[in-house]
Amino acid sequence: MQWEVVIGLEVHAQLSTESKIFSGASTAFGAAPNAQACAVDIALPGVLPVLNRGAVERAIKFGLAVGAKVARRSVFSRKNYFYPDLPKGYQISQFDLPVVLGGEIPILVDGVEKKVRLTRAHLEEDAGKSLHEDFHGMTGIDLNRAGTPLLEIVSEPDMSSPLEAVAYARELHSLVRYLDICDGNMQEGSFRCDANVSVRRPGGPLGTRREIKNLNSFRFLQQAIEYEIRWQIDTLESGGKIQQATVLFDSDRGETRAMRSKEEAHDYRYFPDPDLLPLEISEAWIEEVGKTLPELPQAKRIRYVSDFGLSAYDAGVLTSSKELAAYFEEVVSIYSDAKVCANWVMGEVNGWLNKAGIEIAKCPISSRALAGLLNRIGDGTISGKIAKEVFEAMWNGEGEADAIIEARGLKQISDSSALEKIVDEIISNNPSQVADYRAGRDKLFAFFVGQAMKATRGQANPAQLSEILKQKLAG
Amino acid sequence: MSISLSDVKRIASLSRIAVSDAEAEATRAQLSGIFSLIEEMQAVDTGGIAPMSHAQEIVLRLRSDTVTETDQHEAFQRGAPQVEAALYLVPKVIE
After folding, report:
1. How far is A64 from chain B, CA to nearest CA, in Å?
2. Where are the domains positioned within chain B?
3. How far apart are CA A385 and CA A402, in angstroms?
4. What is the DSSP string of A248-303?
5. Is A263's pLDDT higher than 70?
6. Are A139 and B77 in contact (CB < 8 Å)?
7. pLDDT digit string (tens) for A192-215?
8. DSSP E strands, A126-269
9. Contact B77 A140 (CB under 8 A)
10. In total, how many domains does chain A have?
11. How many beta-carbon pairs below 8 A join chains A and B?
């Protein structure tokens, strides 16, 4: 049977402010328990929230970057529920008048571009953390995270496969980091995804959706959605019905499971927070923030294709993070063959970074050092193959390309008389192969190249060697 | 408009307030009174009037993004029923 998948995502991006959204407590990660939970955060009687300008500014920045409408007037509401890590008994959020309305995120899946529409993005505070480990059957509450500013970004149900959902989440992740409004650290929970998933008959009415909560890696996002789609289709095809539910993804078992939760727990009884007046954002402020917008990933991709002649795919990889794009642009500014630079950054640099599990910011080879290495390929000092050996040595901290080439004696042999001498020797040492080659076994050419490379420890200039071999073997 | 006894019990449960049957009945009568007052107000034509989110015609004042608070958890936790390793301890609640 044919099924159509419908996915919408809600992303909670922790905004990179110094202080909390409604208090002057620090938001730094990893502090001792409750050391950063002030009277406002723990909801002592009589305290009042005061909104952080930095949080609003980041929301405006986001709104402008996705082409959304930044609301000139928005309102904070109370979302009421009881949980020990929410000391007020309500979360301050935005309900019917959010700060950002609409907008869109372009995604690229299998070479096809698609636009995912955004419904809204609103400001809210995070809750604290419950630690259910062994406290004599009690739960430990750390309120350091309570009051941390979040931008909840809600998409329309525009995605129709797990891959599209991941592409969207990645694009959004990259965007908030370009904008410098969120550090994007998924392990620390700075960027969390909830996925609403349903299936339906092609063209039919929307199916009942289930919401997968708190996915903190792109891999889990994909696995959870894949599992959920299979589960929903199996359930429907075996005559069952989907109940609307909130589910959690168990990454060890690779499956989603419904949370034990009372039906009425979702009656949040939103109402405007009387402690907070309406938020007004002036046109002048929006304009001012607009001037601070950096070049965005999509614009960068287009520029890489038009100015550097790169493929759309390469441009996508290189612009996937602001840091990688900056590294690449620095290399290109010194060594102008963009295609070669792109290949090295995406191939060797990315490959070694992945193997070592580190980010480009911690790359042991600076962009300038890499350009130095590429210059030596460009001027014929070393071949591309030898360059990989030099790269490895540079990675291991043996110094700059020139020093390594010198110390290891890796200079390419481009001296034709030296190469001719080597080729002569090979010819006289391998008479039967020479005879076979001359009798028409062309494939043996590779054998001679191999012998010459062996004799020169890979340092023969490949083009020159090939030329000399052809001449000499012709007899 | 009148509300039912089960509405009252549901609202009480959402608010984590324990109510006896007698209290629920008394509350039902009071709440119904409030709702009928609201019903009366709803007769007023509010078409074309923007919803009011606050009683005063002033807007939010913002603070600059700076850390102004210091660690006072010891003072705060003196009033907590149970504390361990600087964490507030509460009865276990796992959903």
Report:
1. 21
2. 5-42
3. 16
4. EEETTTTEEEE----GGGG----EE-TTSPPEE--HHHHHHHHTT----HHHHHHH
5. no
6. no
7. 999 999 999 998 899 999 999 999
8. 129-135, 138-142, 149-155, 191-200, 210-215, 245-250, 255-258
9. no
10. 3
11. 128
Confidence category of residue A258, pLDDT binned at 50, 70, 90 = confident
Structure tokens at A405: 């080439």
**A234 in the same domain as A360:** no
Q: Shortest Cα distance from A391 to chain B (angstroms)? A: 44
Residue A44 confidence (pLDDT) above 60: yes
| Residue at a domain's end among A244, A268, A289 | A289
ipTM: 0.81
CATH number at residue A460: 1.10.10.410
Judged against a pLDDT cut of 90, whether residue A122 lies above it is answered with yes
pLDDT for residue A275 = 94
Same domain, A356 and A270: no
Structure tokens at B68: 């102004």
pLDDT digits (tens, 9 = 90+) for A371-411: 999 999 988 888 888 899 999 999 999 999 999 988 887 88
Say yes or no for a CB contact (<8 Å) between A269 and B77: no
List CB contacts (< 8 A) between B72 and chain A.
38-39
Residues of A in contact with B75 (CB under 8 A): none
- The DSSP symbol for A460 reads B
* Structural domain for A83, as ranges: 4-289
Q: Kindly state the helix (H) or strand (E) to which residue A121 belongs, with its residue range.
A: strand A112-125
- Residue contact A52–B88, C-beta within 8 A: no
- Does residue B56 carry a pLDDT above 80? no
Dihedral of alpha carbons A23, A24, A30, A33, sign: negative
Residues of A in contact with B68 (CB under 8 A): 19, 24
| Binary contact (B69, A132; C-beta < 8 A) | no
Residues B14-22 have a mean pLDDT of: 89
Mean pLDDT of chain B: 89
pLDDT > 80? residue B95: no
Burial of A262-288, coded b for 16+ CB within 10 Å and e otherwise, reads eeeeeebeeebbeebbbbebeeebeee
- C-alpha A50/C-alpha B66 separation (Å) is 12
Q: Which residues of A touch B89 (CB under 8 A)?
A: 135, 138-141
Question: Is there a single domain that holds both residue A177 and residue A43?
Answer: yes
Is A464 found in the same domain as A356? no
Q: Of A271, A289, A307, which residue constitutes the final position of a domain?
A: A289
First-last CA distance in chain B: 36
A396 and A450 in a single domain? The answer is no
A449 & A399 share domain: no
Residues of A in contact with B77 (CB under 8 A): 34
Distance between CA atoms of residues A447 and A466, nearest Å? 12
CB contact under 8 A, A17 and B65: yes
pLDDT-derived band at B94, boundaries 50, 70, 90: low
